[in-house]
Design goal:
The complex is a heterodimer of chains A (122) and B (105). Chain A is mainly β and 122 residues long. Chain A is built from no helices and 11 strands. In chain A, strands 2, 4, 5, 6, 9, 10 and 11 form a 7-stranded mixed β-sheet that branches. Chain B is 0% helix and 48% strand. In chain B, the strands form 2 sheets. In chain B, strands 1, 3, 4, 7, 8 and 9 form a 6-stranded mixed β-sheet that branches. Chain B has a 3-stranded antiparallel β-sheet with strand order 2-6-5, with no helix packed on it. In chain B, a hairpin with a 6-residue loop joins strand 3 and strand 4. Classes of the chains: A mainly beta (122), B mainly beta (105). At the A-B interface, strand 5 and strand 10 of A face strand 3, strand 7 and strand 8 of B.
Chain lengths: 122, 105
Amino acid sequence: QVQLQESGPGLVKPSETLSLTCTVSGDSITSRTYYWGWIRQPPGEGLEWIASMYYSGNTYYNPSLKSRVTMSVDTSNNQFSLKLTSMTAADTAVYYCTRVLRDYGDFPIDYWGQGTLVTVSS
Amino acid sequence: YELTQPPSVSVSPGQTATITCSGDKVGRNYTSWYQQKPGQSPVLVIYQDAKRPSGIPERFSASNSGNTATLTISGTQAMDEADYFCQTWDSTTYVFGTGTRVSVL
């Protein structure tokens, strides 16, 4: 049974950098079948894609966030991470880590973490 | 690139709910659909326009052509009450629809 678990701070101050980690269990992050990624959802709003990455390094970023986002993979610990700089109140959201099916043209997301609420406030 | 969905759809139990996802030439790209119940993570219910993942009931079906992708829930049950989002991959970018709340009244 595949599980994805986000970890990181629930509260970040404005202008600071958010760092989140997703720990994958039940599957290898080096599997050739998947990408791994991050999605966020502001309270009461829709879904916003942040970034997706193949374990060997191909990375895709949301153009509207690209200047502030870095995604990386730690194969030794079967984890991947997100850094988002210059946080503002507009970045308050539930952040989900995800597994993406790489072999389909719509890159569907077949597993989601439980999500972690990140609030930006001083 | 934007995908527009109706904010809400109401359906009686046992009837058919139809949710549209409109975008310029959306039919040229494969589309997925997700169900999200309050306080839960989204669940994939349709991928590659019309395929159902294992465990998704047959009452969920979908199509995609021209400028509209459509999710259909036949014989809607109370447990289907949720938010639904369409999603596609446009070149190098994910695009999510605006979301539709399905109410089973």
